[in-house]
Structure formats: C-alpha cells, structure tokens
Amino acid sequence: MTIWQIPGQPHAASVLHDAVRHDQVGHAWAVVGPSGVGQEQLARSLAAALNCEVEVTGCGTCSSCARSLRGAHPAYWEFVPVGAAHRVGEVRDSWTHVASRTAAEGRYKVLRVVDADRMNDAAANAFLKMLEEPPPRTVWVIELADPEELPDTIVSRCREVRVSPWDRETMAALATTAPSVTDRDRDLAVRAAMGSPDRLRALLTARGLEDLRRHRSIPRELRHRGPAFALLAAAELDDEMKRAVAGVRDDARRERDQLAEFYGDAPPRDVLRQVEQRSTRREREARTVVAQTALDDLAGWYRDVLFVRTGGDPADALHADDAEGLRVDAGALSERALLASIDTLFVRREELELNVAMTLAVESLLLDLWSVAAA
Ligand SMILES: [Zn+2]
Fold this sequence. Notes:
Blueprint lengths: L9 H12 L6 E5 L6 H13 L11 H8 L5 E4 L8 H13 L8 E5 L7 H12 L5 E7 L7 H4 L3 E4 L5 H8 L7 H10 L4 H7 L4 H9 L1 H8 L1 H37 L5 H41 L13 H10 L2 H18 L5 H17 L1
The structure holds zinc ion.
C-alpha cells in the first residue's frame, strides 16, 4: 500500500484506504485538523486510488496514479481561497461547473477544498446546495482546521477523518533530510516546529533558525531598548516578508516561462491572468505566513518562559537550547505579563489575516508587548 504510506497520518490514511478497498468512499469527506500536516497527500492519494488503471487501492506507478499524486490529473481539482475567504462567486461559477461536468479522463472526480472553514456564509450556502444534490462519481474532500466555522448542515453531510500534528519521531525523521544542520539545531527545529512539517522545512533552511532566534530575543530586546526596538523589529520582519515574496515572484516567473515554451510565444490571456492572480494570492499568503510564524515563535517562547517561571525545568522546554535566556526572561516578566502577552499574540494573529498594513499591525503589537512588560 505504498501510496497510503502518508508521513505523520497513518490513521487518516488507513481510514481512506479502507473506504476505497470496501468501495465505501461516499461523496464527501471532512478532513479535520491543523492545516499543512498531510492533507494534500491524502487527497491526491484518494484521487490516485479511485482512478488507478491497475489496482483497486492505487498502484502508485501507472500514468494515472503518477499524475494524481502530482496534482495534475484532469479528474482532480484543488480549490484554494482567493484572498481571506472562499467567495460565493467562486463556488457558484468554478466549483459548480467542475462538479457537474464529466472529467476528460478517470472514473471519479476528487475535488479538494483547502481551508474550507474559510467560506463566508454565502459561499457556505452555495456549497451546501451542491452537497445536497451530489453529482455521481464525485468526491469532495473539504479541509477544516475548525469545523465550528462551518454550518453543521455541511459538516454532517461529510464523513469525518482526523489529522493531527506529526509526532516527534516522524518530525525527527524529516529533519534528517537536512544534512548540513548540526544536531543541536536539528533538535531545536523539531521542537519549535510543534508538529508542523511545513514549519520544520522552513526552519531547516539557511535563514530559518536565525529568524527563530531573532524572534525569541524580542522580549529581551524590548526590555532593554524600549519602544524604538518595536519599530526596528517590525522593519526586520518586513525584510523577512520581502524575501518570502521574492521567492513567490521567482516561481511565477518560472511558471510564465514554462507557459511561453508550451504555447509558443503567446499564451492565452486568461491563462496568463490566472497565473497573475495566483501569484498575487501567494504573495499575500507568504507575507501572512511570515508574520504569523514570528508571532507563533514569540508565543512559544513566552510559553516556555512561563513554564520555567512556574518551576519547569528548562531542559523540558521547546527552547531547551537557550536555558539561560529562558531563566533571564522568567526573572524579568511576571506571570500576569506573560499570560497577557500570550493572549495578545493569539488575538492579533487572527486579525493579521485580514490586515493589509501588516508591518504597522506588527509594530503596534510589539508596542503592546512592551507596555505589558513595563507595566
Ligand atoms: Zn495506478
């Protein structure tokens, strides 16, 4: 069952594998759990199995499987929110259209909805209509970090399968694929990534751990250098965002080059527009991810400081490699200040997704953290 060996998600993989084997796939699945822990591979494996030319549960090697696993099979679709939410226009036009027509190839269509809990009410209602009258041989896979964000009428029409953060062992195995990192750094990355393989990969890049160490020094620097440091730290974060955006733009350039090669010198205008839209969306997402990651790093650090302040052993902390820094901050920050800081970070993290002026939002957040510590 090689296509069902999905790192970090043996339970979800076996549930879907069994459903395929017993021909009980149904027409909708809700994959519930934190995003980015293997949802893509689960949906693609399901598409591969349902359209395999060789084996009932998917061979993994035939042309159909290979394209499904790459996300490039004509019967497999991924819907990603444009901007902050899935919009009703997208659901009515694009989703309905795809769901109702017959795919050029394959027995089953598999339609994956990324961040399905980010549908607004109108979009959710339009989607519910589709679920109420499921087209034959069409399987929806909707991904929910928080099922309560969607009407129960949608969730109750789906079979639920749970995904979870990766365990320490699976994370450690992934970390060994970065050979140039020291054992000490590898251990820090595995701990700080808290079960998220995407975060672990990012931490193991050249700048990843450097950025993490800068983020966790923010409380100390704020104490020493005051509000001026908030502005400086926000500016550094802005540089981090610019680097992330530059990476996205490089990808878009490569995609345009490939299109030009494929179509001769003039790709159709609507295809080019799609590439542009996707790139704009990814740029925005890249900026959000950078800001949220910084906030998560900070929250993880404050949590560790609180742990040490209330008698925990620094060796058991996520940031065990900087026991001295933990002790220093634990001596300087009250429990109340730590709890208030963690709370501020969680509230602001939610808001960031909707905020256009991200650097300003981060600046004001850091000023808040400074005033909480100074109070
Ligand atoms: Zn196959």
